[in-house]
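A further point concerns the way the authors explain their paired sequence and structure data. Each protein is reduced to its one-letter sequence and a matching series of backbone shape codes. An entry of this sort, consisting of the sequence and the corresponding backbone structure tokens, reads as follows:
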Amino acid sequence: MRADLVPHAMLAYSHASPHLLTTGRPFTDNPLPHPVKLLLFDLDGTLMLSGGAGSRAIDTIFLRNFGVANAFDGIHPHGMTDPMIFRELFARHGLAIADEAETITRLAEEYRRELAIEMPISEKAHLMPGVIPLLERLAAAPGVVMGLLTGNFEPTARIKLTRFDLNRFFPFGAFSTDSANRSDLPPVAVRRAEEFLGRPIGLGPHVSVIGDTPMDVRRALDNGVTSVAVATTKFTVEDLRRAGAHIVLDSFADTDFALNALGVTA
């Protein structure tokens, strides 16, 4: 297992509180240590892959609505939000859309219905190495709170996570339902974490955005939070280091190593 660790204030946080975060209710008798370590996970390529379920669902709705077969062919969605993907599809296939925002809203609901059919039967869908052991250890770690930060629409993100029973780890998040611009999402996720815990958190190095693309790195750096990158898809450790990630892992396969890199005692 390889990692590149840049010295960072996030590695010095205290985890003295004895409680475990297990429910959506704020803890008042055993407050979390300050600052909270907030870990915001990307979905596709970081936690799991849908095995083509998403592209098949999009192909179905573009064929039905626009007569375009195999619409997703040639699309490279790494780091893109779902609204960005739809807009690229409109442009690629020369579709004149009078009201793109309204059309995307309508297509998003059709996409949700089709993905709910495709995802449970997607034979090639799989978790990335080490995801379950890592999430279980993080869920038991004092002072650590987890959320999602993904370019998926929230309903379709939840459908993907359901396939592997991952929703239990992520009671809140920020999604492309909130904004099509990925760099807008960390403040949204922090606000929802604050609502979840019933206490201020704020942006800063105690917040980590964890993803597999240089775009995930960029949205962390744009918001002054820690970038944790994992080289599980097309981008190498070197690619992610050059993008400016503070912490780079080649995978989550070694749970203890990953926890140490994240500065978590669990």
Observations:
- The longest strand covers residues 144-149.
